[in-house]
From TrEMBL, chain A:
<dbReference type="GO" id="GO:0017004">
    <property type="term" value="P:cytochrome complex assembly"/>
</dbReference>
<feature type="transmembrane region" description="Helical">
    <location>
        <begin position="475"/>
        <end position="495"/>
    </location>
</feature>
<feature type="transmembrane region" description="Helical">
    <location>
        <begin position="125"/>
        <end position="144"/>
    </location>
</feature>
<feature type="transmembrane region" description="Helical">
    <location>
        <begin position="274"/>
        <end position="292"/>
    </location>
</feature>
<feature type="transmembrane region" description="Helical">
    <location>
        <begin position="6"/>
        <end position="29"/>
    </location>
</feature>
<feature type="transmembrane region" description="Helical">
    <location>
        <begin position="249"/>
        <end position="265"/>
    </location>
</feature>
<feature type="domain" description="Cytochrome c assembly protein">
    <location>
        <begin position="89"/>
        <end position="295"/>
    </location>
</feature>
<dbReference type="InterPro" id="IPR003568">
    <property type="entry name" value="Cyt_c_biogenesis_CcmF"/>
</dbReference>
<feature type="transmembrane region" description="Helical">
    <location>
        <begin position="420"/>
        <end position="442"/>
    </location>
</feature>
UniProtKB/TrEMBL annotation, chain B:
<dbReference type="InterPro" id="IPR036127">
    <property type="entry name" value="CcmE-like_sf"/>
</dbReference>
<keyword id="KW-1003">Cell membrane</keyword>
<keyword id="KW-0479">Metal-binding</keyword>
<dbReference type="GO" id="GO:0017004">
    <property type="term" value="P:cytochrome complex assembly"/>
</dbReference>
<feature type="topological domain" description="Extracellular">
    <location>
        <begin position="30"/>
        <end position="152"/>
    </location>
</feature>
<feature type="binding site" description="covalent">
    <location>
        <position position="124"/>
    </location>
    <ligand>
        <name>heme</name>
    </ligand>
</feature>
<keyword id="KW-0997">Cell inner membrane</keyword>
<feature type="transmembrane region" description="Helical">
    <location>
        <begin position="12"/>
        <end position="30"/>
    </location>
</feature>
<dbReference type="GO" id="GO:0017003">
    <property type="term" value="P:protein-heme linkage"/>
</dbReference>
């Protein structure tokens, strides 16, 4: 019954999305105000409908309605309530339903917070967002319907994948989707501007804030994913260059290029075409990522059961969105010619350089991700190992780290490269000195780690100098930028140390045996069986001590969920400011109680995620720029005045 | 040549050199890290890269797993039902590793009998196979269809 209502609401949502796609756009072309005015109410209606649909799916899980196929496949009577709720987005159908729910929320937010846009502008934007919503709601309805019914209903469900029965599942997917789908706003703004044939600085200023917000969500989403993989997959990795991880990283890279170029195009009539193109690329990569994840065409930890129809459906959507936007771009690009001259020695040039670096990184990683598919089409099966990605990314990030302080240092409009270099030069030596100190403090570092640590110090030292020397009271834009750049420094330092100074040991431990790893003593005190909530676990007890002083007792688990045949490894971690101690259980080797145990020492791993959090915080702080607010108020006043004049 | 032209020519040359270096690095990195996927049948026909890592995938043969006492060393056979390859691995096997289930291993042939794996992947759940392993079984199907009943 409830499922039928859900199904009905989904159809209503699709209808509303189609109307939202058509009416305001027709209004725009016919210059009909009342048609254009339908945009905002339709956007709110769409949100209410899609959100109710989503709420119904959640209720079906909470109420354990196993007559719904999707529910019995991913829930069970024993599943605790909190995981029944998160199970909603635990598999394909529910997660695309969440995709459209999040998109509907973005659309409603755009409708609500767009007072500074004229009616013709907002109606185009909402209409383009309607096009995207139509495609994805149709995808849910025709290719991934979560409301399908099983008859007769099974008495119990198949249970949720144990890996997903975790706190990370509550926050990682929603936040990642907010970022992912948020890129559709930047895309719609770009396309709407192309339709109108002109982009002014008000337009870019407005879209810049939305892009910043989406980028902040994308950043936190990726960070949470990395942190989750680290503790939940049980094997201590934080980034695998897995196709699905790349799928979220690619829009992030393009988005990073975009927010930096927007800083220029907002101030000057320059790089406007490039801004639009980057917005199109960023969202197209989001759709491509959705294709990679949903089609199951590439081996990945995230793959759900493969379904070619779904893959083709998304590929068609990608062709329509990216193809349509690029065609429009090709037709209109002449009208976006830069009017303002750009000096070679200026911040503008540096920011252009930044976007080129990030786009190069995007395409290098894209190639590595797609090559296996291309080869497969030629009948050969290959895969691209993570060393490829690691090396390429490292090489591309060298110019990024070298140029970042220079870009932040250079003045707008016209500056002298030599004076910027002169201001930064002392910090080059400070960073060098600190790197030498770090080199000896950590018993030597390899080439990549040395470069990474140097990059971290170099960016940190120059950013701090720029904050101290800032003339007058720093504005939110500058503070945001500095916080984000310091985040890059913290990230680089953490990543370099974690990658090159970690210790990994697979050991065979007998009960009572003590073994030494990286200066710590690990005493294995055997394994006991325990019963918790909906699973049974074998829990190991490992005492960690240093210089004879007990430090912590860790309890890694091997969990067995009754509905699942395979066990699950739950690591136990002793987190710390400068290092994590990470222990997980392999398997029992013999009947004497000997176990395979993996022990990790992960230096500075938390710095990496903290750096990411700082980048996100920076993007959020920049939203509160007073200059933006003042300019926006002027715009609102102007729109109001025009409206009064018309009536 | 006028100075502007000279400047422009220099720019073009620098960009060309830059792009050349970048392409070179890209191709080297790519070539070094590109891994072929081979099925047990292909390996048994000596069709595999020598002294180079590749991915070997198929099913873990039933009751083929053997543990070397007092170590984390294990040996098992990977099969596509037409041929099998002996695999040795030292370390902790993934949770989803099971006899009679799909697996992908990464490593080198030590000699034409033994594959030494550095990594063992079994990223499927009970009703899902790694696509590569599934494809290997599919490819070998005509060879064993007559003698074996459908096992999957």
């Amino acid at each position: 019954m409830l499922a039928s209502i859900g199904q009905f609401l989904l159809i209503l949502s699709l209808t509303t999305a189609v109307v939202l796609m058509l009416l305001p756009m027709i209004g725009y072309y016919k210059n009909n105000d009342s048609l254009m005015r339908t945009g905002r109410p339709l956007a709110y209606l769409l949100f209410v409908l899609v959100f109710s649909t989503f709420a119904i799916l959640v209720s079906l899980f909470v109420l354990q309605d196993f007559s719904v196929t999707y529910v019995w496949q991913h829930s069970s009577l024993a599943l605790p309530l909190r995981y029944r709720i998160t199970a909603t987005w635990g598999a394909h159908e529910g997660s695309v339903l969440m995709w459209i729910t999040v998109q509907a929320l973005w659309i409603a937010a755009v409708a609500r917070y767009s007072r500074s846009l004229s009616l013709s502008q907002i109606s185009r934007v909402l209409s383009v967002l309607g096009i995207i919503a139509t495609g994805f709601i149709a995808f849910v309805l025709f290719a991934s319907n979560p409301f399908e019914i099983t008859n007769p209903a099974p008495l119990d469900g198949r249970d949720l994948n144990p890996l997903l029965q975790d706190f990370g599942m509550i926050i990682h997917p929603p936040l990642l989707y907010f970022g992912y789908v948020g890129m559709s706003v930047a895309f719609s703004l770009a396309v709407a501007a192309l339709i109108g044939g002109q982009i002014d600085e008000k337009w870019i200023r407005w879209s810049r804030r939305w892009t910043n917000l989406a980028w902040a969500f994308l950043t936190i989403g990726i960070i949470l994913g990395s942190w989750w993989a680290y503790y939940e997959l049980g094997w201590g990795g934080w980034w695998f260059w897995d196709p699905v991880e790349n799928a979220s990283f690619l829009p992030w890279l393009a988005g990073t290029a975009l927010i930096h170029v927007q800083a220029v195009s907002e101030r000057k009539n320059a790089f406007r075409g490039w801004t639009v193109l980057l917005a199109i690329i960023a969202f197209s990569l989001c759709v491509l990522g959705t294709f990679l994840v949903r089609s199951g065409s590439i081996t990945s930890v995230h793959s759900f059961a493969a379904d070619p129809f779904r893959g083709i459906f998304i590929l068609v959507l990608l062709a329509i969105y990216a193809g349509g936007a690029l065609t429009l771009y090709a037709l209109r690009v002449n009208q976006l010619k830069s009017k303002d001259a750009i000096n070679l020695e200026s911040k503008e040039t540096m920011l252009l350089g930044n976007s080129l670096v990030f786009i190069t990184a995007t395409f290098t990683i894209l190639l590595g991700t797609l090559f296996p598919m291309i080869f497969e089409a030629m009948g050969k099966k290959i895969s691209v190992g993570s060393p490829y990605f690691g090396l390429m990314f490292f090489l591309i990030m060298i110019p990024m780290a070298v140029l970042l302080p220079l870009g932040a240092q250079m003045k707008w409009h016209k500056d002298k490269m030599s004076s910027a270099v002169k201001a930064l030069l002392p910090h080059f030596f400070i960073a060098g000195l600190l790197t030498v100190l770090a080199y000896f403090a950590f018993d030597g570092l390899n080439l990549r780690a040395t470069a990474g640590v140097f990059g971290g110090f170099w960016i940190a030292s120059t950013s701090i100098m720029q904050i101290i020397k800032f003339p007058g009271k720093p504005n939110a834009g500058f503070i945001g930028m500095s916080v984000a750049h310091l985040g890059v420094a913290v990230f680089l330092f953490g990543m370099s140390m974690t990658e090159h100074k970690d210790v990994e040991k697979d050991l065979l431990l007998k009960p009572g045996q003590t073994t030494q790893v990286a200066g710590y003593d690990f005493t294995f005190n055997g394994v006991t069986s325990i019963q918790i909530e909906n699973y049974r676990a074998q829990q190991g007890s490992i005492l960690v001590s240093q210089d004879g002083q007990p430090l912590v007792e860790l309890h890694p688990q091997k969990r067995h969920y009754p509905k699942q045949q395979q066990p699950m490894t739950e690591a136990d971690i002793y987190p710390g400011f400068t290092k994590d101690i990470y222990v997980s259980l392999g398997e029992q080797i013999n009947d004497k109680g000997d176990w395979a145990v993996r022990i990790y020492i992960k230096p500075f791993i938390r710095w990496m995620w903290f750096g990411g959090l700082m980048m996100m915080a920076g993007a959020l702080i920049a939203l509160f720029n007073k200059r933006n607010k003042r300019l926006e108020q002027q715009q609102v006043d102007q729109v109001m005045k025009e409206r009064l004049k018309l009536s | 040549m006028t100075p502007t032209r000279k400047k422009r020519l220099m720019m073009v040359l620098m960009v060309a050199v830059g792009v050349g270096i970048a392409t070179g690095i890209f191709l080297t990195a790519f070539k070094d890290n590109m891994m072929y996927f081979k099925s047990p049948s292909e390996v048994s026909q000596q069709n595999y890269p020598v002294n180079r890592s590749f991915r070997l995938g198929g099913m873990v043969k039933e009751s083929s797993m053997r543990r070397i006492p007092d170590s984390l060393k294990v040996q098992f056979e990977v099969t596509d039902f037409a041929a099998s390859v002996l695999v040795e691995y030292e370390g902790i096997l993934p949770d989803l590793f099971r006899e009679g289930q799909g697996v992908v291993t990464i490593g080198k042939m030590q000699n034409d009998q033994l594959f030494v794996a550095e990594e063992v992947l079994a990223k499927h759940d009970e009703n899902y196979m790694p696509p590569e392993a599934a494809a290997a079984l599919e490819a070998a199907k005509p060879k064993y269809k007559n003698t074996n009943k459908e096992s999957n």
